[in-house]
DNA sequence: GTTTGCATGTAAACGGTTACATGATTGG
DNA sequence: CCAATCATGTAACCGTTTACATGCAAAC
């Protein structure tokens, strides 16, 4: 899903600034599936405005930079729905950690251990972030997505804990 | 992980042509985590050759196009190890399906049902592909990675089957 | 006094995909 | 006869990231 469509989706729930959209990406429990940087959000928002899919209202603020509050237009809703009705591409899960584990036998044992520990810590952090946000969720879709993220993290953690010894033992004995 | 590094990794297990590298990506049970197109593999291989990280041997074939068999050089092994010792970026899991489910309430009910069915079918197909390849795996790393893919798919399937009704029921009743 | 949060934006660089070009052989 | 497999490569395009630019206020 491109940033354009993601912005439309978020705006379909209510108006927001570019800054707030980014924050929603990062905090709302589905950061595992969706993310984007300011460098892609702001240009996307400008293009959507040009195309009439969103509208802007500028708010001057005292002691704060001006903010541009974006709202989705009827044309924007139509375009968003059309995007959701198009054929949906497959998932892509890029995991540099998993890639490294494929070559654990080339790595010093303590490097493997450290990588696994760090990965477990990360996953647990995300899990507890999800748990915190959980009660706030209103829509069935949100609960579904967040629940799925939770299920995936839990399955990964369970698997890693059960099988880490198999790769740690076989890792290269010493650093060169 | 960029295509460059992925190519080095595959060549660290033995020589291969660009075509074979792509096939390994697609078939070896970790296609969920790693993929690349010819358009990125061939240029990467050429650049690696220029840099002395891999070497090429050209094989003329009768009744088949010539093939270029690539091997990793000692410098290539060093560079690959160095890449594995660098800080490892976080996973990114892009799921257009999950994104669509976030907005299931905007979609006609049968669209949601079809998307879920298709996603389940895809996941099951990957699971059985993994099961087929399973017995061939030799290294502990490979078994770990493939096992992790399996664990993830199983967890997703279980979750979707248990919770699909919640979003199907709340989907938009009729198409407009 | 430094970091974090608020707030927007641009430009260059990067990495990758898609489509195109070529062409013979084998299997269904 | 058509599709798939083997086999390599280029070029245009696309979307995104990264770094840069700016700046004040509040919290620690």
How far apart are the first and last residues' alpha carbons of chain A, in Å? 44 Å
Name the CATH superfamily assignment of the largest domain in chain A: Winged helix-like DNA-binding domain superfamily/Winged helix DNA-binding domain
Enumerate the spans of chain A where pLDDT stays under 50 for 5 or more consecutive residues.
none
Could you say what the CATH architecture of the largest domain in chain A is? Orthogonal Bundle
Q: What overall geometry of chain A do the principal axes of the alpha carbons give?
A: elongated
Mean pLDDT of chain A: 91
- What is the makeup of the main sheet of chain A? 2 strands, antiparallel
- The number of domains of chain A is 2
Which two chains form the greatest contact, residue counts included?
A-B, 60 and 60 residues
What's the order of the H and E elements of chain A? HHHEEHEHHH
Number of strands of chain A: 3
* Quaternary organization: homodimer
Task: Report the C-alpha radius of gyration of chain A, rounded.
Answer: 21 Å
Q: Could you give a quick summary of the protein structure above?
A:
The structure is a homodimer of 176-residue chains. With 176 residues, chain A is mainly alpha-helical. The first copy, chain A, has 7 helices and 3 strands; from the N terminus they run αααββαβααα.
